[in-house]
Every structure is written in structure tokens, then in C-alpha cells.
Write a structure and sequence with these properties.
8% of the residues lie in helices and 39% in strands. By secondary structure, the chain is mainly beta. It folds into three domains: 168 residues, Sandwich (Immunoglobulin-like), CATH 2.60.40.420; 141 residues, Cupredoxins -  blue copper proteins (Immunoglobulin-like), CATH 2.60.40; 125 residues, Cupredoxins -  blue copper proteins (Immunoglobulin-like, Sandwich), CATH 2.60.40.420. The strands form six sheets. The chain has a seven-stranded mixed β-sheet, with no helix packed on it. A hairpin with a 2-residue loop joins strand 10 and strand 11. Helix 1 runs antiparallel to helix 2. The protein is globular and about 60 Å long.
Length: 487
Amino acid sequence: MPTRRSVLTAGLAAAGSATLTGAALTPLLRSEEPLGTQLTSAASPVVEKYRLPLSIPRVLAPYSTAGGVDRYRVTMQSARAQILPGIQTDVLTYGGHFPGPVIQARSGRAVSVEQYNTLDMPTSVHLHGASVPEQDDGKPMLTIAPGDRRTYTYPNQQPHASLWFHDHAHHMESEHVYRGLAGTYLLTDAVEQALPLPKGAYDVPIAIRDARFDENGQLVYVMGDHPNRTTLLANGRAYPYFEVAARKYRLRLLNSANLRSVRLRLADGGEIVQIGSDGGLLPKPYATDAVALSPGERADVVIDFSRYPVGTRLVLQNTNLEGGPADQLGEVLRFDVVRTATDRSEVPSELRTLPPLPTPTAERTVVLSMDESGGPDPKGFVNGKVYDPDRVDDFIRYGASEVWTVTNGNQFVPHNLHIHLVQFRVLERDGKAPGPAESGLKDTVMVMPGETVKLQATFDTYRGTYLYHCHLIDHSAMGMMAQFRVS
């Protein structure tokens, strides 16, 4: 019996880098092995914690800066990485790096990335949270064939933000991201640079996700396999330790998991100051004891380790266990305070000023749902429809500012909504004003079962056809994705 991977490999590879149509996808979908037949109850083996140091993602250097454009070349390739202590695991990477590398960019200065695909599957690279022309958005059907190249140009005509890039080839994005095709893209500007926030070695991206391993320490991928992905990774390593100085650190947290949401807190309940979300800095910082992130969401936080004596070991916990084993899902990494350090950084009481929201020009309703029966071959829906690349679901006037009412139509399964092209503002959550974590710009928003969220987005940058979808990425791979056209 053919597996999902063998069928998709044959079908998508044959399609090459052409734009696949809905008709072309149909035989692939019909040939898939039913998802339910692949599920097992064998979760990852228990891993000894705090054996490996936190891996700091490598910052890429452009090969050219001529003409006001920073140019990069990145090779998508297979590699091996030490995720579990003493074991080499097969992964998919950008440039051989696991976790993925960091591209540093500046508002007003373009970045060009030539992506070379040496894998045996088509890929498509999406810069999550970026406002880019249609052809550079990483469309799920406009793929890079094995052995082929594609150059993406990012104008960076938007304010600072902690973005990330990942694969978006439809039906394979879920497995590709799970196996490692994700990286960090830090966009800065004069507003951010003028603030006395922690910088340099004290400004650290940390991507958090879950995974499942077999008895040989190899990643096991099964679509929708949420209960069995019980090993937590931070920057591509299981339960690492991070040696810090007794001073303030800016941590750029990303939930890069396929399905699992996290709620992060320090084991002693200590203060975490959130300063940013998906679309950059919040208007004001706020102190909290926990930060919640659904897949695709980001939070920039500052933790002041000067309140701890040298020698302190402090665990970053996850309190959103979702019925899983607490010994595996309840801890993420450990901070080890190993030295003192001079610290002139500060967190100002005002971080940025967001412009007032314009008067809305239109309203839309979005309902996210999926089959909750537990049967084989589950489908995901936006407004009752499975994604069709030949169908445009919404037509938006260029320059419009729209209010979207987003509802999770399921009783048990959480969803979230990611809109390409725009950053938006959250207006309401079940009729109530959003909390301080959602006071800034967002591109991904959590919607729990039965919950309704209102948001406002302005479409005044680029014309073209773009996606919106659930970023519990297994759900989008099941079809919970739709298209809008700005014209």
C-alpha cells in the first residue's frame, strides 16, 4: 500500500515548479493512505534533561550588499543534528542549520534570498508576517522543484518585527516544517534601535516546539499526531540548559510547533516583561508571570536574571499540558546563572506609538472548522470549504480596512488564524477587549473551540492573491486554508 509520502513524492515531483491546480491535486488526495490507519499510541521515549546547551541560531551574512539590497544564498538540504543527547537525528534544513538560521534585515532596505532546493520534494518558502509582493509570498502551489532554485525578494517596507520563514508547499508544509524547514528573520528599524533594550549577545531568539522520536532517536511524523509529540525542543534541542549572566536578556520566543500551544512561566513564578508580539513592539511593556503562544505566534520578553544569585538554576516551564505527560511537557529549558555582568539596558515605559485604526470599510465572517469524528482522512474547512488553489474566496478593495469576525466552529479542537500580507489589530475576544499581550500588531491569533475573535486589517500595500489559514499547520495541510484577492 502506498504511503502518503510516496504518493506525494511521485505526484508533486512530477509537477515540478509549475503552479499546481485543484484538478492536479485531486489524484494525490485520493491516493493518500487514510490518516487514521497510521496513528499509534507510542509516544517519544523519556529524554534525560539538561544535558545539552541551548543552541544559538547562526546569523547569516549576505554575499552582496550592492545596490542597497542584501543578497543571500540558502540551500535547502538534508543534515544530521544532535537533538537528543548523544544521538544524531536526520533533519531538513536551510543551509545545514538546525535550528534554522537568522537573517537580520532593516526596514527600508530590501533583502533577496536565492533558495536552492536539494531535497527530493518540492518546497515553497513563506516569510511569515511579512508584507511582500504576491510572487514572493511563498505560494503553496508555486513550488521549487528538486534541483531547482527560486529567488524571493523582500522589500521590508514595514516596521520592525520578529518574523520567521518556513516551508509552505501544500500537503507537505506540515512534514517539512516538522522536520526542520524553519528559520528566523529579524527586521529592525530606527524606532526599535533607539530604545535601550538588551542587544547583541543578550538578544536571543528561542523557537519552542514538540516532537516525537522512535527508539533510534529519529523524528516520527504522522499528520495530526498531537498526543504523541511529547518531547519539547528549544532551538532544536530537547530540554537544553542556557548559561546566562545576572542581567537582563531579551528573548524572542516563537512557537514553531505544528499543533501544540504552550504557556510559559518561570518555575519560581518570577516576573516576565512582555515587550513585543508578532508585529513588533507593544505600545507599552507589561509585567506578567506567564506567556501563552499558539503555533506561529511570537512574543518578545525581557527577563532580568540579576535578581538571582550566581549558581541559580531556573526552569522555564510549560503549564499547558493538554492532557500529556507532565514530566515531558511541563519543562522546556533551564536557565543557569553563571556570572555577573554590567547591564546598562532598560525597558522604557513607552515602546512605540501605533497609529489610530481607520474607520472600517467592510466586514467579513470567517469560520474555522474540521472533522472531529476521529475517522480517517480528516479535512479542514474555512467557511465550510476545503482549500482550492483555483478558487478565490474573498475579494478585497485595495486600501480597504476590514473587520473580520473569526469563529472556531469546533467543540473540542483549537484553531488559530494567520493572514498573509498584513499585520492586524485584535479588537475583541468573545465580546471583551483583548488583554495587553494582544495590544500590538498581530498576524496570527488563537481561537479556542466555540470562541469568536474580531480583528481589523488594512490592505494598502500590495495587490494580488494571498492566503489565510489555520496555523496549526497540520490543519492547513488538511485544507483549512482560503484565498483573498486585493485589487
